[in-house]
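User: Before I run my own analysis I want an independent prediction to cross-check against. Here's the chain; please return only the structure tokens and, at the end, one sentence I can use as a sanity check.
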Amino acid sequence: MNPVLFAFLITLFAGLSTGIGSAIAFFAKRTNTKFLSIALGFSAGVMIYVSLVEIFVKAQDSLISELGEITGSWITVIAFFGGMLLIGIIDRLIPKAENPHEVCKVEDMLSGKCSSDKLMRMGVFTAIAIMIHNFPEGLATFITALQEPTLAIPIAVAIAIHNIPEGIAVSVPIYYATGSKKKAFMYSFLSGLSEPVGALIGYLILMPLMSDVLLGVVFAGVAGIMVFISLDELLPSAREYGEHHLSIYGLVAGMAVMAISILLFL
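Assistant: Structure tokens:
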């Protein structure tokens, strides 16, 4: 399969998992908090491990081979924290009320706990927030899939798990505001499409300029983005959905599965 097509399909799969969140919102009477807590912790474990053990190291090796040990090491670290800064700024620009990582459960809507006259606005703005937020995630998934195909599938699965609660956050308020499953699913679907769109835009901008140095910088930035997402969003969300220990068990399991999968490809 063409590497670009493979990377795009992997990114598309990760983005459109928001539809799974929509399905949960439509057909579940209660949110399976224990499952989501473990799953989000697992996702964080996969992303943290692969970022620090594989992606950061590959970025550093690439930059050192091109720029020398001292300069290459400094650029790697700067790009890593630059990725964190980028995703942190995006998070700060999203109002808290529309932040896709504010936990709202299906049963809260059924009881009227989350309801208000602004349910539709909440859902629409959450969709917009997710679209903005998912651009760098899409680029991170795409670049990783393009350069390291063996790492692509576990990373895509981790981001897909991460996107399930985002799908709930979009579809639940829109569904209870309009009574239309079609509208709720459409907004959730569109918010997920921003990942492959972000991947394509990033690819079109970066690929004509791509060199070993730029690839190293992008890879280090991707590592920073994924570590920040894990620490700032996935683990706090996992703790909100369930017990603290469940999220940590999921985290360790995610790291272990990622470590084994890397060893199997040696």
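Sanity check: The radius of gyration is 18 Å.
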